Amino acid sequence: MNSSTPAVSIDGVVKRFGPVTAVDGLSLQIQPGEVVAFLGPNGAGKTTTVDMILGLSQPSEGSVQIFGGDPRRAVALGRVAAVMQTGGLLKDFTVRETVELTASLFRPSRPVDEVLDRAGILDIGDRMVGKASGGQQQRLRFALALLSDPDLLILDEPTTGMDVQGRRDFWAAIRSDAARGRTTVFATHYLEEADAYADRIVLVRKGKIVADGTAAEIKALSAGRTVRATWHAPDTDAIAKVEGVDSIDVRGESVLIHGSDSDAIARYLLNHTTACDLEITSRNLEEAFVALTGDDALTPEGALA
Amino acid sequence: MSIAAETRRIPPFGGFSPTFYALELKRMLRNKRSMIFTLIAPSVFFLLFGSDASYRTERVGHGNTTAYIMVSMAVYGAMIATTAGGAMVATERALGWSRQLRLTPLKPVAYVGIKVLVAMTMGAAAIVAVFVVGNLRGADLPFGRLILCGVIGWGCTLVFAAFGLFMGYLLPSENVMQLLGPSLALLALAGGLFTPLDNFSQGFQDFAKFTPAYGVGVLSRAPFGSDGNVSLAVLNIAVWTAIFVGGAAWRMSKDTQRV
Hints:
The complex is a heterodimer.
Chain A: E1 8-17, E2 20-30, E3 35-39, H1 46-53, E4 61-66, H2 71-76, E5 80-83, H3 95-103, H4 112-118, H5 134-146, E6 152-156, H6 164-179, E7 183-188, H7 191-197, E8 200-205, E9 208-214, H8 215-223, E10 225-230, H9 236-240, E11 245-251, E12 254-259, H10 262-272, E13 276-282, H11 285-293
Helix pairs in contact in A: 3-4, 3-5, 4-5, 8-11
Chain B: H1 18-30, H2 32-50, E1 59-60, E2 63-64, H3 65-94, H4 97-101, H5 108-136, H6 143-156, H7 158-170, H8 176-190, H9 202-208, H10 212-220, H11 230-258
Antiparallel strand pairs in B: 1-2
């Protein structure tokens, strides 16, 4: 495999559904071996993007390539596999039959018992899918995704319906495969999951990337403080040049400036502008996430990119 | 990873395989409802409509009336079985299984091929079941002609497998057969499977010649040597097959674009 070929290459992708723009000019490259979290609130365009990575839908504009080729071909060859939120299962197959049927389609395929075991459902192989719990069905989807021993694994909200132990086992399996070089991309709206398991976090909001960095960088972003000031006719261009400023929010006569160095921001405001009534507050990880992905968040220009 | 990119292959025949067929058939045989409608209901109808003692001595061409009703009921059973088999795509789409299959190399054509093969297997089972019961209850037709009736009737119900597929893609419902079951009874009536069309008004008889079960009914009973317009029946089947296959293909292509 050519190591310079990205596992996923998304270039200027726009996806519209009638008047709704679900993905709005998204570009992203994921290198082989990366574990990337696609983090954002519901409706941010995560699932739409995942669909396009798998070739289940076509972008309205832009292109998506998987290992330098067509996504559908990568799916057919088993190079990319996925655990989807929406993928249904047939209730009147047993767990084992579902895996056997899927295994019959891949060349080559891992042994049925092996994937059942790795997904932690070897003991319920003879159970009807309709009688399996939500968490067990999710493990079954995971088992199906392991059959082709994919180079790239896509997970859309993978731990939905799993109990605590289920989540722990699931992520342990994902991490051990990632350590062996499997590229993994997972969409989630759980901040903790992204923080704990991803090497890199891509924050999306309204179909756009608002932040992209390592977990540490995202944490640094959230570790900053917000400076609020009363400022008539604010010069946002000038304040954006102050080191560490990552977002500016003008609300009437109030300006909220977020950055990693609140002292520098305050010093600049007091020394170089007419801004007054300064307040400095810190925000936690959760608030940073909400701020970056919420409805009234600043446009992504100032965010970490 | 352990599988080199160069060793990966796409499965032959778009994913169509004996393993896939066997698993699907096993699932169908486990379904109590489809077993009742395929194997039991047609035989029960035969016993209700065809066990009159006088039918055993009444001749219809090379056979007796019992055999004539037996063939009609067998074809009706095969109609239900093949339609239900084809219509399974509705359930599988409603459950999102077809979306799950889109994460595999399975080609839509291979998927449909397996559905049709399972549907036709069930159709054959329906015919054999009624023939066994019929022969125990005094149906009389030379063996060669009996086999011919079965094979023709079975082959012709392919049109209903296509009908089931078309409806399955058209109606996104888990319980599509609740709608199709009564429709099939009406079609069977118009096809002369419940009672000879001579019993109806001329107007209905003329109308009936354009309904999808008419051709199947006439052709499957042709080995009796009784009257019936064979060339019209062949035309009827050809046209309806074209309509249903075309409709199914059209809906299927819409489906794969969207999913």
